[in-house]
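Dear colleague,

Thank you for sharing your sequence with our group. We've completed the structure prediction you requested, and as agreed, I am returning the results in plain text so they can be pasted directly into your records. Please verify that the sequence below matches your submission; if there's any discrepancy, let me know and we will rerun it promptly.
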Amino acid sequence: MVKYSSTRVTLGITASLDLEVEQLDVTTAFLHGDFKEEICMEELKGYEEPCKEHLVCRLKKSLYAL
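Please find the predicted structure tokens below.
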């Protein structure tokens, strides 16, 4: 008896019907999203410019673990 994984069966059916397969990574999909609100953060240590230490950064995209 031959064991088939669900992935192999799905790809086999897809190939036999001449369909296309797309893949996405759900675990990191949130990193590519846009914000609905304005989020600001302090500059990271080592990246501050002299005489501008009081400024903050406005985020345009999400940061990991935000």
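Summary note from our side: Residues 5 and 11 are 10 Å apart (CA to CA).

Kind regards,
the structure core
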